[in-house]
Amino acid sequence: MCGIFGIIAKKSDVAKKLLIIGKRLAYRGYDSAGLAVYKDGVIDLRKDVGTIDYVIESLKLAEMKGNIGIGQLRWSTFGKPSKINAQPHFDCDGDMIGAHNGNIISYYETKENLEKEGHNIISQNDGEICVHAIEKHYDKEQDMIKAIIGGIAEMEGAFAFVTYHKDSPEKLYAVKMGSSLVIGLGEEETYIASDLPSILPLTKKFVPLNDGEIVELTADSYRIFSVKDGSEITRESRISDLSAEDAVKGDFDYFLTKEIYEQVDATEKLAYGLESDVLDSLVEKLAKADKVFLIGCGSSLNACNVGSYYLNNVAGVLAIPVIGGRFFEEYKDYDPGDTTAMLCVSQSGETKDIINTINFAKPKGYHILGMVNVPGSTVERMSEAYAYIGAGIERSVPATKTYTNQVLLFLILAARVGHAKGKLSDKDFESLKDEIHNLSKLVEVTVKNSDERAKKIAKELSKINAMSLLGYGVTHGVALEGALKIREINYIAAEAMYSSEFKHGPLSIVSDGYPVIYVVAPNDKYYVISHISEVECREGRPIVIAEHIDGLDKYVQEEDYFEIPKSSQLISPILAVIPLQLLALYMSIERGINPDYPRNLSKTLTVD
Ligand code: BG6
User: Fold this and answer.
1) The pLDDT value given to residue 377
2) Per residue in 40-62, pLDDT tens?
């Protein structure tokens, strides 16, 4: 997944503003970067392998002059990271420049066709064939909208593309074909970018786009055209309530640290709105559903795992978590009737696996519901009803506050649905609401109380290459999330599984000092004690995250016990993830890894 962006302005100072946007898209791709700015008949293209910060320094991007420019940050799919495969790319004559985000799955075939027609394609990157495909039609049509429509017909894939041509340097063009893209409206300048947060330092005024739409931007106007037939589409602009401040590190060393600490505010804000009418539609549709599939990927899938416990046990709704990329294989012949809902959980609202699932399920009659963090995102706009998790901008690639707010929103929805259906009495509903309102204080205590112990254990675990995390009942999803955090920013084999499963095979991995982390909810503590002793008696090293458990000291060293504040079976799993987030963070720092941008990963995968 990559980041694309562009500016068309009256003044010739776009380079610095392009870099403001580009730096905020760094989470989308950081193996190469490039900028192409136009002035007086010349397109100045500068690109190379390396992070955007490196390329800015080495190629002096900030000094580029011009009133129109585009840029791209690359997470490689087609073609290894190299200068020639970096984007943007020229067409054959050097009159047009373009960059894409996404995948052209017809790459080899389209490349061959274009080369047969005489196009000189010099890279192995699929972004380059977008430029040549459009060039082919521009040479005939001498009209960029028609050329883009014609070029798209030459290709298959899911992507977004931004381009401009020397013949019309006062116009910037872009097209959304399956990857995220949004317009920003400034003062005598207009922006295009892969996500909304990246343009917030420049403007809060944005225009969301749908797939199959081409935009023509000038410094003070925007027009939208349909790829299908070139007809013009009108769409009002919106004002974002996200703030740009959300996404600067402040006095934290890493975004990850900042965002772990921000869970206090994020949970407080979300809890504050637990009875808000903005949730009414989602609550109503969940209350009517006789079953709901919970669809997610990565940390969002782990949140679905905890969420299914809440919906099944508090709301009395049959909830089934399913991997985003698996649903249309697993349930291809399932008939949803008209009472099956699908709750799509995606903080970016742009993950391709989720969008593929919606495109599969919607025509079959599933009621599509959304849980997103980014307003105006694709999943939001494909849903009958949706809710925001309100976590604010999350910059670090590993999810933390967005995962926690997803779990909290599941609990809020389960409480409201359970009460609406009479499964939760007024009294129980009131007490659960009180617990939810009190949660952020417990989050704050947990973050503070876990920090030192996490740092200490991280030092001891900084050399290990494998560990197991076990959850039981409501904490199974928490163990999955903890393992994902540790794995993705430490590059080690951290496995997670259901606690009762460990003895059926995986237990063989335990030998002297092998770390096994148990995430234990209050009602399950005595059941899990037998699991802990199975590891302790085989010289393993049990590490426990739980509220107080009498007699635990028989099996667990005091320094291996994260005692989280007393709460309840439903609240405890939200607190229990915090020691795991901090442990993963400090282990990563011990290993000299930048936890914000782990190798090979990307924050939002808009590719298959
Ligand atoms: C992955 C990210 O690419 O996508 C994970 O690295 C994230 O952190 C997953 O959880 C799902 O993303 P989203 O935006 O759909 O929640």
Assistant:
1) 87
2) 999 999 999 988 889 999 999 99
Among 417-426, 526-535, 570-579, the range scoring the smallest mean pLDDT is 526-535
What separation in Å is there between the alpha carbon of 546 and the centre of ligand 1? 27
> Which of 195, 322, 393, 605 to mutate to test ligand 1, by most ligand atoms within 8 A of the CB atom?
605
264, pLDDT greater than 70: yes
Please write down the HEC assignment for all residues of 458-497.
HHHCCCCCEEEEEECHHHHHHHHHHHHHHHHHHCCEEEEE
Q: What is the pLDDT of residues 309-320, one digit of tens each?
A: 999 999 999 999
CA 603 – ligand 1 centroid, Å: 6
Q: How much is the average pLDDT of 71-80? A: 84
Q: How many CB atoms lie within 10 A of CB 91?
A: 24
Closest CA to 345 of 271, 418, 407, 417: 407
Q: Which amino acid is at 317?
A: V
Alpha carbons 466 and 514: distance in angstroms, whole number: 8
User: What are the boundaries of each domain within the chain?
Assistant: 3-240, 247-590
Q: What is the pLDDT of residue 85?
A: 95
pLDDT average, residue stretch 487-501: 95
Q: What is the CA radius of gyration of the chain?
A: 25
**CB of residue 267 inside a 6 A radius of ligand 1:** no
> How confident is the model at residue 179, as a pLDDT?
87
Ligand 1 midpoint to CA 242 (Å): 19
248 versus 407: the higher-pLDDT residue is 407
**Is residue 346 lining ligand 1, measured as CB closer than 6 Å?**
yes
Atom of ligand 1 nearest to the CA of 402: 16
CATH top class, domain 3-240:
alpha beta
Rounded to the nearest whole angstrom, what is the distance from the C-alpha of residue 576 to the centroid of ligand 1? 20
Q: Tokens 């709105």 belong to which residue?
A: 273
Q: Tell me if 195 sits within 8 A of 182, measured CB to CB.
A: yes
Q: What's the rounded Cα separation, in Å, for the pair 483 and 488?
A: 8
Instruction: Find out whether the beta carbon of 406 lies less than 6 Å from any atom of ligand 1.
Output: no
Paired sense of beta strands 42-49 and 32-39, if any: antiparallel
For residue 399, the ligand 1 atom closest to its alpha carbon is 8
| Mutation probe of ligand 1 site: the residue of 357, 604, 606, 608 with most atoms within 8 A of C-beta | 604
For the domain made up of 247-590, the CATH class stated in words is alpha beta
